[in-house]
Amino acid sequence: MIKTLIIEDEEPAALRLGKLLAAIDPSIEILDALDSVEASVKWLKANPSPDLIMLDIQLADGLSFEIFKQVRVNSFVIFPTAYDEYAIKAFELNSIDYLLKPIDKGKLEQSIRKYSEMMKGPGTIDIQALLETLEGRKASFKKRFAVNVGSRIVSVETSSVAWFYTLEKSTFLCTDDNRHYPLDYSLEHLEELLDPDQFFRINRQYLVRYSAIHRIHILSKSRIKLEMQPAPKEDLLVATARTHEFRLWLDR
């Protein structure tokens, strides 16, 4: 029996995760589902370490790494994450694995198999190495873009880009002074290159910089509209599926 603790601040995601685990291995026992750093630390101090922890990185009251600073954990940990490949190298430590969101059942099954293989020997979590690598990744974020303008090449500082967008299957950037340049990157690739503290993918077409957001309008519980400087020609709406994550991003 694999005693498992789920730490995930979105209830639908936690429920889906529990169902996926049960479908993969009926011997998996869900001990509890928690949604915050505070609740997790309290639970882990009061109970024996579970065999497995499914640990979301961004929780209701902060980053889940704070848990390891307050309580010792010897469990195998799987992090659902959206970090780029450079940072993911940090997760390839003993007793640590990762899954890119949205979680794929097949990949989750591979992680469970990895856990089963590692049960044969003792494992320790080198969380300090993980944190150090995640901090080190800041130096790797893209600082500028070389864009073609006719027969010239123009260098655009990343800090001067208000937003990136797609139009007719092409990608462009818009600067603070409202200049638009084409790019040879997809928005998916840009998400890997840019500092996630400064840039957020609000929907399929737009990736925006925090300091370029002028006003935020709440249209409904799940709909948010942004006013940008400079302003695009169309309304910028945060995708419903990204609303919760966007709120967490604003509250970092």
Mean pLDDT: 86
What quaternary form is this? Answer: single chain
Distance between the termini: 37 Å
CATH superfamily of the largest domain: Response regulator
Backbone shape: elongated
The CATH architecture of the largest domain can be given as 3-Layer(aba) Sandwich
How many domains is the backbone divided into? 2
Q: Which percent bin holds the helix content?
A: 25-40%
Uncertain regions spanning at least 5 consecutive residues? none
Tell me the Rg in angstroms. 20 Å
Order of helices and strands: EHEHEEEHEHEHHEEEEEHEEEEEH
The largest pleated sheet is described as:
5 strands, parallel
- Based on helices, strands and strand pairing, what is the structural class? alpha/beta
Adjacency order of strands in the biggest sheet = 2-1-3-6-7
Would you state the CATH class of the largest domain? Answer: Alpha Beta
How many strand segments?
A: 17
CATH topology of the largest domain: Rossmann fold
Annotation field: number of helices:
8
Verbal overview:
This protein is an alpha/beta fold. The protein folds into two domains: 2-138, 3-Layer(aba) Sandwich (Rossmann fold); 141-250, OB fold (Dihydrolipoamide Acetyltransferase, E2P). 29% of the residues lie in helices and 34% in strands. It is built from eight helices and 17 strands. The chain has helices spanning 11-24, 37-46, 65-70, 85-88, 105-118, 127-136, 187-193, 243-250; strands spanning 2-7, 28-34, 52-55, 58-59, 62-63, 76-81, 96-100, 144-149, 152-157, 161-167, 170-175, 180-183, 199-201, 206-209, 213-220, 223-228, 236-238. The strands form five sheets. It has a five-stranded parallel β-sheet, with helices on one face. Strands 12-11-10-14-13 form a five-stranded antiparallel β-sheet, with no helix packed on it.
